[in-house]
């Protein structure tokens, strides 16, 4: 789940304060959220309890961020693809315009500072976040990348896959214990431990970050990825009052 650094009210709190929904309607929305897992603002629009424009305006005013209705826009797929597809899906965000070094990004959660910084690092653009509804973001992504449909797995294959995964996990655990023992033995005796280089098939792609990973892990991965891309020798993280400055040493010079 995205880590939001903000004391602003949520959509639910705003609607409650303004008494826009009844207690019964709130209960219906909560039930829908439990079933579908969608955000509160998307649920009230889908259930036709509050108009989309009104929801966007209320959140825009409370969160002090501009809102945009992507459903009335024709977004250029080339703009969308500036941002890695996996990041777009992870953060429920999509670029819709750019101007020089500024990338305008529609986000379901524009208060997510870690997401904004990660997108900044991955695209090389300064990110200007805008508020948009999740379903509209999904529609734009599907138009640009196509709709992904997972093929159903036959029951026999699924059971076989689960058994294989279980056996593989045990084997990996045994191998890990053996490797650990070997490393410790090498350290104790002063001997050398040979570490083989990973093949292309075995190499780890740090772009493939689990969506359930902690936000700090995603941010660190993004910083390291950028350092690799720039072939940097050092990474300098400078904590400021309200943000972090990350600079890289490339050819002896520090750069952002």
Can you describe this structure?
- With 256 residues, the protein is α+β, with helices and mostly antiparallel strands.
- Among the domains are: 53 residues; 41 residues, Beta-Lactamase (2-Layer Sandwich), CATH 3.30.450.
- It contains ten helices and six strands, in the order ααααααββαβαααβββ.
- Helix 7 packs parallel to helix 10.
- About 15% of the residues have low confidence.
Oligomeric form of this entry? single chain
Described by the principal axes of the CA atoms, the overall outline is: elongated
Portion of residues in helices? 40-55%
**Strand fraction:** 5-15%
Encode the helix/strand succession as letters.
HHHHHHEEHEHHHEEE
By helix and strand content, what is the structural category?
Answer: alpha+beta
* Averaged pLDDT: 78
How many H/I helical runs? 10
Number of separate strands: 6
The Cα radius of gyration reads: 23 Å
Strand order of the largest sheet: 1-2-3
């Amino acid at each position: 789940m995205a880590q939001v650094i903000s004391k602003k009210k949520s959509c639910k709190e705003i609607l409650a304060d303004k008494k826009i929904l009844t207690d019964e309607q709130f209960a219906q929305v909560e039930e829908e959220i439990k079933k579908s897992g969608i955000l509160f603002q998307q649920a009230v629009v889908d259930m036709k309890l509050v108009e989309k424009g009104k929801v966007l305006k209320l959140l825009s005013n409370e969160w002090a961020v501009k809102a945009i209705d992507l459903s009335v826009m024709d977004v250029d797929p080339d703009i969308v693809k500036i941002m890695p597809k996996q990041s777009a899906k992870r953060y429920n965000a999509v670029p819709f315009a750019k101007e020089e070094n500024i990338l305008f990004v529609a986000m379901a959660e524009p208060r997510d500072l870690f997401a904004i910084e990660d997108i900044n690092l991955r695209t090389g653009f300064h990110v200007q976040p805008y508020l948009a509804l999740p379903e509209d973001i999904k529609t734009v992504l599907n138009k640009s990348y196509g709709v992904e449909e997972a093929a159903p797995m036959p029951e026999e294959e699924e059971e076989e896959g689960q058994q294989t995964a279980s056996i593989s996990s045990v084997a990996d655990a045994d191998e890990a214990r053996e490797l650990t023992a070997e490393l410790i033995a090498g350290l104790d005796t002063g001997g050398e431990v040979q570490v083989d280089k990973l093949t292309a098939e075995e190499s780890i792609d740090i772009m493939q970050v689990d969506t359930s990973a902690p936000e700090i892990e995603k941010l660190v991965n993004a910083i390291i990825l950028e350092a690799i891309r720039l072939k940097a020798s050092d990474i300098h993280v400078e904590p400021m009052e309200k943000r972090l400055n990350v600079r890289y040493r490339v050819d002896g010079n520090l750069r952002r």
